[in-house]
Amino acid sequence: MRNRPARGVAAAVALVVLACPGVSFAESPGTATGPVHASVRLDPRPMVGGGSVPAHFVGFSVEWSLIERYMGPTARPAFANLLGNLGTGVLRIGGSSQDVMPFDATAVNTNEVITPEDLADIRATLDAANADHIAGDGTPNWGVILGTAMSPPTAQRPWRVPEHARAFVTQGVGPAFAGADEDVAAVSLGNEPDLSYRYDLQQYLGDFAAFSGANATRPYPIVTPNTSEPIAPWTSIANRSVETRFFWDWPAILDATAPATKANAGAFGAWAADHFYPLARTCATDPYRCPTIPALLSDERSANFNYQVYTHANEAARRGLGYRVEELNTAAGRGAHGVSDVAASAVWALDTMFNAACPQPPHAPSVNAECGTGAIGVNFHNAEVRAFFHPEEGNGYYNAINFDPSAAMGAPTPAPEYYALLLFARLAQGTTGLRPMPVAVNAPQGGQVKAWRVDGGASERRAFLINKGDQPVSLDVAAPGATYEIDRMTPDDPSGAGRTLDAPGVRIDGRVVSADGSWPGFQPTVGTAEAGHFQVTLGAGEAVVVTLHGHDG
After folding, report:
1. What would the mean pLDDT of 29-39 be, rounded to a whole number?
2. Are 399 and 343 within 8 A, CB to CB?
3. Angstrom distance (rounded) from CA 316 to CA 272
4. Please, are residues 291 and 336 in contact by the beta-carbon 8 Å criterion?
5. Residues paired with 52 in a beta bridge
6. What is the pLDDT of residue 215?
């Protein structure tokens, strides 16, 4: 399956329709047979302008404490297949663990220290995922971001100094990736410095100057600042009525870090990094953080994300940098049971990837209608359920890929979110002409719908239709006369109780990933448009991808 491109991606035009509560548009008539809740029109002509969904857009983030669980000898074959199913991407190794786990070239390999053995496991995993090795742009199919500590030293952790980062690179990364240096997309310095530096910008910038002055990451690219922000409405961040940590310090941070970042850019380019969580596992002191499915799928949480991505991607672009959301998931604190580990997380993940690629800023509607500003990629985070160094206790609820917590450390398995990444990577990643599209709402269910499109060749058009609501939606698609294929991502409730958004599983075309991590392939159904229209019914919590063939565009 590795290096096999998404069916039709090189010459596809994609329309994405995302069900989203509270959205309404001007009404237009639908002509399909039966009740129609909403309608969209797909212009057969290639769009002029628009953005893109870059190669390597999708990715995962894994804590250092879980290397053996995902990439050890018994876990590696399945994990490499799970990466290979997506075609291209970026794997990030880091998170808070990179600031609490030292690198030691001579230590016995345990969950509490980073060793050359860990780096060798990562290299072996990428070798397996990159069996055919080269993506269409000349880069490896999968690259890796390797995180090391940059945080104020303490009596318990005095090793958090430039010399430690230099040893990590020279004694760990360099030997492990000899002959495959291009696989290392970047070395990340520190994690969430807004928290580790207690909002002390000058101390953070001083330490960055010391680390960069010591060439701590050379010869590998550097990425910063990996900042986080409070879970709060975008309006409160905009008017600064909440503690914004380093949000408004990005111009000063990038002025200080961009020169060093660009001076040593590698095959994957140079970028600045950010984190985002719409909810939190704990919310006793702040009800706004509380995790529920309606909150996760709400327009408001999407608006918060769009505001952050648009604002920071713009700041990065002004300094010649890309922008990547290197740590992303449903709820901070390792997710929330019943929200992060159910089908709703797949719906949210698919929505969020398109919003990352083309954020629509709530404070400036339509300013980014052609998707000129956006992220170059996202990394969905994976961690232990409670605390570092205790993987035997189980998986974080938000994990997109679940590790084996037993002593066997066997094959990792896909969670609901993984299927959203699979659908996006194989059928949207690498396309151009990305734009949002209007949706005509004819009934309350139709108010759950949004639309996007991307352009490719003249002989195909592709539509992603996602129902984020808890009721079926009937959608009329106006399009040139054509045959079409339909792939469906559907909630899977093996209990037979009929759960949808809260179902524990997800399938695509009725299929699941095999036990060895390989994907058996899509199995679309086929239909024919009549008089330039066809109707698609979306079940609750269901995503449909429509690929049109044979139009005259």
Report:
1. 64
2. no
3. 6
4. yes
5. 432
6. 95
The pLDDT assigned to 50 comes to: 77
Q: What is the token pair recorded at 57?
A: 């857009």
Task: Please determine, for residue 407, whether its predicted confidence score (pLDDT) is greater than 90.
Answer: yes
Q: Find all residues with CB under 8 Å of 3, minimum gap 6, and list them.
A: 84, 87, 131, 132, 133, 134, 135, 141
By DSSP bridging, strand 505-508 and strand 483-492 are: antiparallel
d(C-alpha 378, C-alpha 481), whole Å: 36
420/423 Cα distance (integer angstroms): 5
Neighbours of 468 (CB within 10 A): 30
What is the sign, positive or negative, of the torsion defined by CA atoms of 452, 456, 458, 464?
negative
Token digits of residue 328: 């992303």
The Cα 290–Cα 24 span in angstroms is: 26
Q: How far apart are CA 398 and CA 395, in angstroms?
A: 8
**CB–CB of 454/53 below 8 Å?**
yes
Measured between alpha carbons, how far is 518 from 55 in angstroms, rounded to an integer?
Answer: 21
Size of the chain in residues: 553
**Residue where the block lists tokens 């980062």:** 165
Amino acid at 34: G
Q: Return the minimum-mean-pLDDT range out of 37-46, 74-83, 291-300.
A: 37-46
Tokens describing residue 394: 């189980």
The whole-number pLDDT of residue 412 equals 98
Query: Which residues, at least 6 apart from 163, have a Cβ–Cβ distance to it below 8 Å?
Result: 214
Q: How far is CA 493 from the centre of its chain?
A: 25
pLDDT in tens, 315-365: 999 999 999 999 999 999 999 999 999 999 999 999 999 999 999 999 999
Burial of 236 (0-12, 13-18, 19+ CB in 10 A): middle
pTM, two decimals, is 0.93
Of residues 79, 62, 61, 60, the one with CA closest to residue 412:
79
CA distance 525 to 502: 26
User: pLDDT band at residue 44, thresholds of 50, 70 and 90?
Assistant: low
Report the C-alpha gap between 380 and 417 in whole angstroms. Answer: 9
Q: Phi, psi (5° rounding) for residue 79?
A: -65, -40
State yes or no: cis peptide before 359, omega within 30 of 0: no
